[in-house]
Amino acid sequence: GLQPYKLLVITNSGLRATIGTDAAYSQPQVTDASHLVIFCAKTTVDEAYVDAYVANSAKTRGMTVESLASYREMMMGSMKRMTPEQQTSWCQKQAYIGVGTLLAACADAHIDACPMEGFDPAKVDEILGLKAMGLTATVFCPLGFRAADDAAASYKKVRMPREEFIIERA
What we know:
Layout: E1 5-10, H1 13-23, H2 28-32, E2 35-42, H3 47-61, H4 69-80, H5 84-108, E3 112-113, H6 121-128, E4 135-144, H7 162-165
Antiparallel strand pairs: 1-2, 2-4, 3-4
């Protein structure tokens, strides 16, 4: 529940063009979509962040912070056992859980979404000033409605055959 990531929603076409050209290999989804959602992972989870989460949990659930002390200690113990690189990696993995939720919500609303990692995170971080916010770009998800003349919309999806993709153990 820590949600160690933030969502940047970029609708500014000029900013999307800069990101697309300078950091995303000119992929058209970045500039053509109406919205570019960038999942940005925290680069560290410190005591202040955990304490804020615990305080919010207590307030939301009508509990005391003291009643969540063991929960807080468990979270802090986990964070302290990780190197800074491991914390960033863990936060990035947590962001992908959010990506899955976004994709499911988009599918339900019939909104096209295109999750992608085809970008240079360091350049995106620089363009958006993410380092100063303790964040790093992790995954893009352009959103919108595909153009009526999009030829690719009718292409069959190319996926591995089920028997090659799924490993079953009984």
